[in-house]
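Postdoc handover notes: sequence design on the structure in folder B. Input tokens:
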């Protein structure tokens, strides 16, 4: 996540290991730990379009596993890349948490 936080705004190439990202996604969906990821994802079904990650219940949100992880971590730039009828729900939750 932090590597992506640095690479993305600088336009640097590179991507984390897909298996590691999927493991992080599963952990983030299971519980709040370093970030309120489970809380952010509550009420939507997250579906990765590049792997096997699936979690939650509700209207569907689709995107890459990395974008789903970044969205659960509260990154608005990742939320903007997500699709599905649940995407506005997730976007509203992230925006609300950004405002505090």
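Designed sequence:
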């Amino acid at each position: 996540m932090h590597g992506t936080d640095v690479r993305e705004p600088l336009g640097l190439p590179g991507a984390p290991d897909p298996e590691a990202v999927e493991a992080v996604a599963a952990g983030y969906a299971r519980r709040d730990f370093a970030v309120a990821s489970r809380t952010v994802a509550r009420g939507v079904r997250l579906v990765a379009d590049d792997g096997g990650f699936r979690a939650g219940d509700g209207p569907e949100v689709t995107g890459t596993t990395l974008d789903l992880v970044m969205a659960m971590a509260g990154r608005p730039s990742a939320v903007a890349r997500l699709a599905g009828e649940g995407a506005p729900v997730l976007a509203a939750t992230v925006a609300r948490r950004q405002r505090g």
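Context for whoever picks this up: The chain has a mean pLDDT of 90. Don't rerun without checking with the PI first.
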